Amino acid sequence: MDIVMDGQALNAFLAAEFPQVADDYRIETVGPQGLVARLRVGNQHLRPGGTVSGPSIFALADIGIYCAILSRIGPVALAVTTNASVDFMRKPAAGRDLLAECRILKLGRSLAVAEALVFSDGTEDPAARCSMTYSIPPKRA
């Protein structure tokens, strides 16, 4: 699969189309196998007990996978999540950003299937594993 949007283009797309979250998330790298997305963890992402909340972990995986798909198909704002599964495996490390290593498993004309492993920055064991399916709208003539 050819890369049609690099990290700079994806970050600019997020800033333009999703300004409400663009400051929290950043695409770090884009490569032939997928991409790495970062959640800049702040107080708004924490739950009682000082750990990153499940919804914040889900959002990182969703944004990362969405951008992985866009990196191959271009800026299609209306591609949407149609299925998602998250396994929370361990508590994220305190005081660290989260990274999602995202990989596209299948990219068709109307559906894409991808996965993300979410890690605390600097750790080897994943905090979560996510699998998602996206619906890709038909190209307009």
From TrEMBL:
Q: Which InterPro entries match?
A: HotDog_dom_sf, PAAI_dom, Thioestr_dom
Instruction: State the UniProt keywords alphabetically.
Output: Hydrolase
* Entries under Gene3D superfamilies matching the protein: Hotdog Thioesterase
Pfam families from the entry?
Answer: 4HBT
Q: Which domain of life is it from?
A: Bacteria
Residue ranges occupied by any Thioesterase domain in the UniProt entry: 49-125
The protein's name is: PaaI family thioesterase
Biological source species:
Paracoccus aerius
Highest classification ranks of the organism: Bacteria, Pseudomonadati, Pseudomonadota, Alphaproteobacteria, Rhodobacterales
